[in-house]
Amino acid sequence: MAATPRAPVRPALRPWLRAHWDVVALVALAAAPALVPALGGALGGQMTTLFISCILALGLNVMVGYTGLVHLGIAAFFGIGAYAAAILTVPMNPFQLGFAPAAVLATALCAGVGLALGAPTLRLRGDYLAIVTLGFGEVVKVMLRNLEQITGGMKGLNPVPPPGAGVTLGGIDLGRAFATDPRWFYYLSLAVLAAVVVALRRLERSRLGRAWVAVREDELAATAMGVSATRVKLSAFALSSAVAGLAGCLYAASLSTTADPNAYDFNRSIMVLCAVILGGLGSIPGTLLGVAILVGFDTVLAPWADAWIQEMRINPSGSSLLSFSGWRLAVFGTALVLVMRYRPEGLVPARREAAQVSEVRP
Amino acid sequence: MQFFLQQCLIGLTNGALVALVALGYTMVYGIIGLINFAHGDLIMLGACLALSLVGLLGLAGAGMAGTVAGVVFLVVACGTFCGLLNVAVDRFVYRPLRTAPKLAPLVSAIGVSFIFMNVGLFWIGPADRSFPDLLPAGNLLGDDGLRFAAKDLLVVAVVVPLMVLLSVLVRATPLGRAMRAVSQDQTAAMLVGIDVDRVIAATFFIGGFLGGAASVIYGLYINTIGFQMGFQNGLYAFTAAVLGGIGSIPGAVVGGLVIGLVRSLASAAVGERWTGAIVFTILIVILVFRPEGLLGRRTREKV
To answer: Is B119–A132 a contact, with Cβ atoms under 8 angstroms apart?
Structure first.
């Protein structure tokens, strides 16, 4: 490697990219709708869902990545956020708030629920806490399903009005714009995602962020240093729940429905957890990459591979053994197993984690 | 009163089944501290095998003796299958991760569970399949009075001996002693000459065997299997294991029975659709007041 002379620009490019990947990605994503016309159609909606999943995963990362608490029910908070926002905005209810106040209230509600669940249970040992969050997720799912007067049961709540319904700004009817052009939601969710990334990054380096990591690494030692482990964990729980709730609000608004309660079940919790662990616990770029891979697998790779198989006429009888979607679960499962086997610290490990691993294996 | 007793009986029978699955979770957790997410789906595969075997052997029309022999064969065959599969998964997936970060085996277990589900999907197809009803439906306790059919007897007749065998094995055999030693301290166990990997493999086999037996009973008792059945059943069984105190073998049995009772009483009292919420609410409340589970050991934080 070292022997081959290279153009002087190349070696400088990689560290520069590594340091500024965020700005590059943001600029590229912000410019994309102007360059890619498909973003005005279905692709725009898919990208919006991707950004929302990223926000959800970043929320989970606060608890699992920074603080080291296993959370198996993040989808419940995603659901509470979505339903709270929907209840506050749908025409059939008397509240009919705008999107922004509803989102603030729903996010606060999720933080409150997180606190209420965390306060009595956070002293539980790791795996017991995991099962409490799992159980809470199931309880929420059952409630969303059965409290039909409030949640609409299996039909969910709709129509959730778009942000800015009825507001006209500079001659543009915002509600209509959001409803008809997916690029509006694309930018809104991208902006929220960027804000969440910036906020979490500042938090990560703050006193609180360092306390999270300290508690994760050694709770007893952290307590001995005067860190209140309970308070630190509780703040992580509340923040995780709030960010997940915020993602839920965006989700309901972008789909203009809460969808049915199955959208907030254990499967989603597990997928988000897998994304965070796959990408690298406690690492913001890792989490984003993990989500992009998982969502990309389902919405881009699988349909593409199916179409390719169809085009090549490999599968004339239409057997599910010869379609890619038939193998979807197995491919995904194998990928999880292999990544954990060969890169247990994740694809883009957090710097601290990477330093530790390289200490052990020089 | 009669109705109440009947619900209790149903609950205990169901609970015995849950307990059998819960044992697989608790034994693996007790020995390597892993929540084996794939256990429920392992049982689903056992049920698939049982269904295929019932068809192959033509058990549906067999007489009394044939049915009893068939059920015993199914339990042994599916138990061995699930046990060996579990050992293979441990060997190739979990063993290389013994020193990895704690979440890595958990995610691998989720991955294995996806793979199993895919296998089940190809094996029995996407729709639920009905499992043939091999046992006579008549009430064993006479016509009026509590209802206790051959199916319920089957659950008791399989679960109780297995549990007695298991407790003898854990308490009174060299393997059981080695298992207890490894679960207390792996390094110390290694120092006194225990082959830790073999003990762990044996634990996976026993847990898998019990799961395989549970899958046969599940098929014969519930009569419907599907490739997604692993998740829901695994969830209840895992809850039972935690409720009893994860890592504790009697705890898993008690937890299973409690979960079974709560489920049947709750669905009689407020309706089937609220059962899940009630079970998990009770779980959360119990954990708040007894964080180590009903029969778990109180562990102290060590420096």
So the answer is: no
